[in-house]
Each structure stands twice: as structure tokens, then as C-alpha cells.
Amino acid sequence: MSTILVLHGPNLNMLGTREPEVYGHESLADIDDRLHQKAAQVGHHLLHLQSNAEYELIERIHEARSEGVDFIIFNPAAFTHTSVALRDAILASGIPFIEVHLSNVHAREAFRHHSYFSDIADGVICGLGSLGYDLALEAALQRIHREN
Ligand SMILES: O=C(O)[C@@H]1C=C(O)[C@@H](O)[C@H](O)C1
User: Fold this and answer.
1) Which of 35, 47, 51, 89 has its CB 3.0 to 4.6 Å from that of 56, i.e. a possible disulfide?
2) What would you give as a GO molecular function for this chain, any one (predicted)?
3) Arithmetic mean of pLDDT over the chain
4) Ramachandran region of residue 3, left (φ > 0), alpha (ψ -120 to 50) or beta?
5) Does residue 55 carry a catalytic annotation?
6) Per-residue pLDDT tens over the stretch 52-74
7) Is 133 a catalytic residue?
């Protein structure tokens, strides 16, 4: 059994009511519950955390390394465009990850076009709404199966 950690950055706790025309109508719990079920169906364990605090996300990544997390699905949200500290944490962890964005950040304001994570990620999925998380999970499971 492998362990996959899903990390959600700031304001994603507001999904469903926050700009639904941009981020969709599903709640974060809806998304996490679906991912948990999909992972469990194939015998893997899924953990998740949403935080509005950069340090909490950093510390969760530090813990992930020691607890043997095999893969991270990461939507850094606004920290995507600002956080060298989170970039350093996930680099130091050595854990492979996929960067996910619900919206197409490249079709939005210019400041959203830069990511501190895309060049070090296994892959980047953006603009597909919550389906991006499902696709990232599928990619994670395929990588885990290749390596085991
Ligand atoms: O599309 C998303 O999931 C990302 C979510 C956010 O909260 C924004 O700050 C990012 O710019 C985009």
C-alpha cells in the first residue's frame, strides 16, 4: 500500500462559494472524499490537508518525508506565485508531486502565469476544474505502480 498526500493552499477551504464561475461549485470536502474513495478502491491510502498558512503546509511537507508519503498532489493556490519557501520544502522532501490548479492560470492575470513549482513537478494540470485532482491521482497511481 502506498500513501498519497493531497495538499491544498489558501482560500481553497472556500471552494463552492468562492468565485464558483472560476473554481467550481464543489466543496473541498466533496473533492477530497472522491479522491479518498478512488485511492481506497485500489488499495492505497490518501491523506489530505488544506491550510491558509504557509508554515503549516511547509511543516506538513517536512512530516510527509518522515512518514513515508510516496507522492504529493499539490495545489499551492496563491502560494504558487509567491512561495520560495514552499518550493524549497518540497524540493528538500524529495517526494514527487503534481501541481494542480482548478482554473487555467495562464488565461488569467499576468501575476498568475508564474509558478515556483512547475519546473520541479512531475507534471502540471490546470484549467480542468476538480477533474485535475482526479487526473493527478491517476498519474500518481500509475507512477507508484511502475516503481513497485
Ligand atoms: O486555480 C487554482 O486552483 C488556483 C487557486 C488560487 O487560489 C489562486 O490564487 C491561483 O492563482 C489559482
Assistant:
1) 51
2) 3-dehydroquinate dehydratase activity
3) 97
4) beta
5) no
6) 999 999 999 999 988 999 999 99
7) no
